[in-house]
Specification:
Elements lengths: L12 E3 L5 E3 L7 E6 L6 H12 L1 H6 L2 E7 L3 H11 L5 E3 L4 H5 L3 E2 L10 E2 L2 E5 L5 E6 L9 H8 L1
Parallel strand pairs: 3-4, 4-5
Antiparallel strand pairs: 1-2, 3-8, 6-7, 8-9
Length: about 150
């Protein structure tokens, strides 16, 4: 099923940084900013997630919950969250299934044959579970348009 603006966001369950199962459906009733990122501790991903962290009061005012997703293990995501004081859930899509269903993956990432990572992508899902905004980048070095994300939440 292709994900498009206006379509129902597919539910999923992934592990958070405490190895606890978290489902998309548990955040219903809020706007959800799903931020897929290629890898913890990489320059652009750190900058992106810290930008989300620094905008949390804005997200809270817009009844929005940020959720980060990468293919990193829960342990790496936990260290990444701790180092950068990230207070929103980071989920581990180590099977790559959710990344493939949503924005896709980069195959043979950084020239490493067989290594795939989430494409940098942002989806906004409204309180009813419908996709309101989507952005998927083919270039892992490009950050999302933070103003467009805020506008879509308003």
């Amino acid at each position: 099923m292709a994900i498009n603006i206006g379509s129902k966001a597919p539910d999923f369950t992934l592990f958070d940084t405490n190895n606890k199962s978290r489902s998309l459906s548990e955040f219903r009733g809020k706007n959800i900013v799903l931020a897929f990122y290629p890898g913890a501790f990489t320059g652009v991903c750190t900058k992106e997630l810290c930008t989300f962290r620094d905008a949390m009061s804005n997200f809270n005012n817009l009844n929005a919950q940020v959720v980060g997703i990468s293919v990193d293990a829960p342990f790496a995501n936990k260290a990444f969250a701790t180092q950068n004081n990230l207070q929103f859930p980071l989920l581990s899509d180590y099977s790559r299934e959710v990344s493939k269903e949503y924005g896709g993956v980069h195959e043979d990432f950084a020239g490493m044959k067989g290594y795939s990572v989430s494409k940098r992508a942002v989806f906004i899902i409204d309180a009813k579970g419908n996709v309101k905004y989507m952005w998927v980048s083919e270039n892992p070095g490009v950050e999302p348009d933070y103003n467009a994300i805020s506008q879509a939440l308003k």
